[in-house]
Write a structure and sequence with these properties.
Distance between the termini: 31 Å
Strand content: 25-35%
Order of helices and strands: EHEEHEEEHE
CATH class: Alpha Beta
Number of helices: 3
Helix content: 10-25%
CATH topology: 50s Ribosomal Protein L5, Chain: A
CATH superfamily: Ribosomal protein L5
Length: 167
């Protein structure tokens, strides 16, 4: 019950507007992950940025299982397997950004798409976390069983060979 594993990897591109840039971002995520992306919409209106409520402003893909681990390893290669401690939250999840998709190994520039960066968010869990999501008898995860920041850092160092640096 103490083994840490990757629950999901979410890849997100925030464009800030709908139209052609959103379509290009969608094409890029399809090319990188071989999965159909989902369009994300704004939750509130921000007039200074020209964003209306429920306007399409980004795309994301959720990867699970073997695909998630393979993509995560490829994305960490682009970051030279270095993360900061501030990339990890108190629940043991971590996230990092890639400024340009051409930093990924084996990916070449596509003039039809242009240059986009993206965020990679990794959700880690332990066995037994199902009790908070199941349909019957949902329960909270006891504090002694919750994943901590230090456990997640140790897991990343051991399983992904990541160097975690202080802020």
């Amino acid at each position: 019950m103490v083994s840490v594993k990757v629950d999901k990897v979410t890849v997100n591109i925030g464009v800030g507007e709908s139209g052609e840039p959103l379509e290009k971002a969608e094409k890029l995520l399809l090319k990188l992950t071989n999965q159909k992306p989902v369009i994300t919409k704004s939750k509130k209106r921000i007039p200074t940025w020209g964003i209306r409520r429920k306007q399409a402003i980004g795309v994301k893909v959720t990867l699970r299982g073997r695909k998630a681990l393979d993509f995560l390893k490829m994305a960490l290669e682009a970051k030279e397997k270095r993360l900061n401690k501030s990339n990890f939250d108190k629940n043991g999840n971590f996230a990092f950004g890639i400024p340009e998709y051409i930093d990924l190994p084996g990916i070449k520039y596509d003039p039809e798409i242009g240059i986009f960066g993206f965020d990679v968010c990794v959700t880690l869990t332990k066995d037994g976390y199902r009790i908070k999501r199941r349909k019957r008898e949902k329960k909270k995860i006891p504090s002694k069983h919750k994943l901590t920041k230090d456990e997640a850092i140790e897991w990343a160092k051991k399983n992904l060979s990541v160097n975690v640096e202080a802020d």
